[in-house]
Amino acid sequence: MIHLPAIGRRFRSGIVCGLLGLWSAVAASAGSELIITNARVFDGRNAQLHENAEIVIAGGKIVAIRKAGSGLPEAGSTAAGADASRDAKAGSASAAGSAPRVIDAGNRIVIPGLIDAHVHPAMAIQIGALRDSDPNYVAARSVVEAQHILMRGFTTIRDMGGPVFGLKQAIDEDLLPGPRIFPSGAIISQTSGHGDFRPRSGTARRWSGEVDLGERLGYGLIADGSDEVATAVREQLRVGASQIKLAAGGGISSMYDPIDSVQYFEEELRAAVRAAADWGTYVAVHAYTPAAIRRSVEAGVRSIEHAHLIDDATMKLIAERGAFLSPQAYLFSRAMPPPAGGGATAAAGSSSPAAGPALTPSQAAQRDKAMLVGAGLDRMMQLAKKHGVKIAFGTDVFGSPRAFGLESLEFGVRLRWFTSLEILRQATSINGELLALSGPRNPYAGGKLGVLEPGAWADLLVVDGNPLEDIRVLEQPDRSLRLIVKNGQVVANRLD
Ligand SMILES: [Zn+2]
User: Fold this and answer.
1) What domains can be seen in the chain, in order of their start residue?
2) Is the pLDDT score of 90 beyond 70?
3) Rounded to the nearest whole angstrom, what is the distance from the C-alpha of residue 33 to the centroid of ligand 1?
4) pLDDT tens-digit readout, 15-50
5) b or e along 368-402 (b: 16 or more beta carbons within 10 Å of the residue's beta carbon)?
6) Cα 458 to middle of ligand 1, angstroms
């Protein structure tokens, strides 16, 4: 988890608000068959599109991707269905078991639903404000952010810390619109570590018996020593964590741990990895420095979050072990010069920190940490490319509507290092591989995510423009996303 105080950028409310009104009666179309016609399909991996294709969907999954006309139902139902698809009432007709619902993609590109591998919807307000907030109010804000995340095209997220289990349950039960969630539960941290959210006046549970609010609510869990770490891991698994999140080094939003601090002894990290492995899943760690990353990878950690201060030898180790790198670029892009060529990225990056309100001393300290970490961004990405590391797509947005509203801007910033196609793969098939590390703890194990192929979950987007050639079309989802389908159900339909 990272935090940039006083981000002086306009909350792009237009990105999300325009689509929210399009939320349609999802439950009404459950179980119905859907056919997307006239599609150019990007399968999540190959640059070669499936041209003039039809995607056949049943039971929430893709049944077939086939050439047009190779197996459509009788003509007539197709045309009628295409017309009816613009009508919210069409779903109930399909659900009754009559003709399949047919939606004409208009020869647009269809891509897998996007995946954000690092986000915190349960941290819907600033951490410092959590203590003075009604947890139900925070939960309500989380519900809103979950809707926004989905409407930006992220049909799946990996939650990297926070009490997100109830939100996940409500979404999975179709009570609310939102993405599929791979929950980590509380961030497990040593005393004084990045997941220790106690205020300065807080006392230690071991000496005072007082359990801090952050622990009670499930944001962070303080555990010291191998036994406690294993117990903390098992506590998260008990309530449904699909992977485990540990803090292995200093952080920005945490107040009392220097960035250079190494957190957890190797035996403690190994205890976490073993406890997770006994349940068939893996550990992800928050870490910036070579020392913290090396210790984690050698202990068996499979996903390194952030890593901005990494060196060459440690990146090589990540590559050799086949671990994933889960970096964030946009939040640190202010520490870099504006890119050549301009665009949305340059406009966002041009705002001056001096334009915002005066910072408190703690905010200033966080800013200094962020600038230190941000200075490593370019080198980290260069090293990752050099060693061919598997790079996830994650944004680490949390804390305010404005911060969540920046989620889609991660796409364009990555053009400094990667092609549009590479970035699109990161946000789809590569993230899908990362999620699959949860093995039997994968909450959606019945199908693949991040790809469009028979047997995969039917999570897909119909896009205006070509994200394989210019990924920045995804930075304006209210304009570019013409159709959002999750679990075979139409979430938003702007085709006309
Ligand atoms: Zn995070």
Assistant:
1) 14-112+452-493 (2.30.40.10), 114-441 (3.20.20.140)
2) no
3) 38
4) 333 444 444 333 333 445 899 999 999 999 999 999
5) ebbebbbebbbebbebbeebebbbbbbbbbbbbbe
6) 28
